Amino acid sequence: MWYYIIKVLLSSVIIVAISEISKRSTMLGSILASVPLVSLLAIIWLYIDTKDVKQVADLSQGIFWMVIPSLLFFILFPVMIHKNINFWISLLVSLIAMVVAYFMMLFILKKAGIQI
Q1: What is the chain's pLDDT, residue by residue, as a tens digit (116 residues)?
Q2: CA 109, CA 61: separation in Å to the nearest integer?
Q3: What is the pTM for the complete model shown?
Q4: CB contact at 8 A, 90 and 77
Q5: Which of 15, 30, 74, 80 lies 20 to 30 angstroms, CA to CA, from 38?
Q6: How far is 44 from 68, CA to CA, in rounded Å?
Q7: Measured between alpha carbons, how far is 49 from 37 in angstroms, rounded to an integer?
Q8: Which class for 111: exposed (0-12), middle (13-18), buried (19 or more C-beta within 10 A)?
């Protein structure tokens, strides 16, 4: 039980810290947010939980493939915001586009014989 509390607290503190740092410096916040902290934490927690390096490697490879469609969000969202489209609409459209891109990537990977 304590282990899960520590995992949640540590993960939450990192997210809140990045949010607070971003208020003071968007450049530093961007750098910290671009580091795959969630992925790193997931890899660390998975290894600690399972000690299964193959499962960790599989997770890492899956993350690689799924980063590609997630980049669509970071392209589309600021373009929409800079065109003065409402924040919530920009966020929603960007998220929907990203989800569609995920499904497209899964379809492409399946056709290419890549299992994640």
Answers
A1: 888 898 889 888 988 998 899 999 988 888 887 778 888 988 999 999 999 999 999 999 999 999 999 999 999 999 999 999 999 999 999 999 999 999 999 999 999 998 88
A2: 12
A3: 0.73
A4: yes
A5: 80
A6: 22
A7: 18
A8: exposed
